[in-house]
Every structure is written in C-alpha cells, then in structure tokens.
Amino acid sequence: MNIGLITKNPELTEDLITNIPEYEIIRYGNIESLVKGNCHLYIVDFDEIGSPDSTQFYLSRLRKKIHDMPVILVLRVNTVSELDSKWFFDDFILYPFRKGEVKARLIRLLADLPVEEEEISIGNLRINLKEYALYVSDEKVDLTYKEFELMRLFLQNRGVVFSRQDLLGRIWGMEYIGGTRTVDVHIRRLRSKIGDEFSAIIETVRNVGYKCRE
After folding, report:
1. What does the CA dihedral 159, 138, 144, 28 come to, rounded to 10 degrees?
2. Which of 63, 130, 174, 195 is least enclosed, having the fewest CB within 10 Å?
C-alpha cells in the first residue's frame, strides 16, 4: 500500500521510511501536488500547516481532494496541547517516532478501510466509480462533479446521517463562503434529475441533514 506524506522535512521522511519499510512512501511538499487516488492513507506534518487557527481550513482542503481516506497528524510534544478533536483527522502520532507505533496505527486505520468497489447499486440506481457515472435503469444521468460526489458519499455510507455542515466540509471545503442552503439546492437538483427513485433513496432527516436509506 502507498502512504502519502505531506512534509518538507527530510529527516522526518527518512525516519518514517525506516519505521515502516513495508509501505511505499510518497512525499508531497503541499496539498496542491497531491495526485488523487495514489495513496490509501495520508500522514500530515503539523509543522507544515502554519498555525492551529488555520488547521481546519488546511485539513478541509485536503479532505476535498482525498475524501474519506484516513489522515494522521504528526505532532511534536510542544504542539499536543493545540490539538482539537473537531479537526478533520483520524489519528495523531508524536515525533520523534517510537518503535512500532507508526506501524500499529497504520494497521488499525487501514483495516477499517472499505473494500474498493467499481460499482455501487441500490435498486435500479447504480454509480460506476471508475467511469464517474451514474445510471438509473441503465440510462446514464448527467451529473455535475459535486452532485456525483454527494451520491457517492451517500451510497458508500448508508444509514449515516450527514449534517449540512458535514456535507459542505466534505464536498465543498471549508473555504466555501456560501451558506448550508447550497446543499439543499444540490439535493433538490439531484432529485429532479433522477426522479422519484432518488427521493426514496436519500432521506431528509428533519432539522439535521440527509442520509441514504439502508
């Protein structure tokens, strides 16, 4: 499996390679250089972010690119107190690394990864992740990028309730300056394009958001 590492620190990079030689490490200097789909998990050097105030914005930009791939933050002892549980990350680890800890954390997170599927279907609706296409009764439906990402998120997480703010953060990113109403607009457009079948699949959770029926 490939592990993405976002850092400009060559010493940290070498230490990580030494600690997990069984994994292929792909180092990126910044989020912009990420290639979507190249890695199964991402490790982010907290020192690259700049300040705690900008962390959620930074991680939101990362999530916009990698979606639900796990994220591990690398902290130093003096930055642990700045950690916020509301940030978009799955785990953290202290640097310098302790023997065996990096591998143990990777194994735990990677074990929870869903099996990658080329197609997901429910009823006569299916999405092809390889083609980036959605079909209803074998007829292709023309969706925008964000509409497709919403459908994928719902179908891959059946029964999970997403608030409008959750959906904004995952699909649009924290840098989006519009209100949560844009989520309702996109859901309405999806239902219009797909018809009654979509209304039955995606449920509105009153005063909260949306979920895909199980």
Report:
1. 70
2. 130
CATH classification of the domain holding 80: 3.40.50.2300
Measured CA angle at 49 (ends 172, 68), to 5 deg: 40
What's the CA gap between 42 and 7, in Å, rounded? Answer: 11
Per-residue pLDDT for 174 more than 60?
no
In sequence order, what are the residues at sequence separation of 6 or more whose Cβ sits closer than 8 angstroms to the Cβ of residue 97? Answer: 15, 16, 19
What's the angle, vertex CA 205, arms to CA 199 and CA 207, rounded to 5? Answer: 130
- Tens digits of residue pLDDT in 117-134: 688 888 888 899 888 899
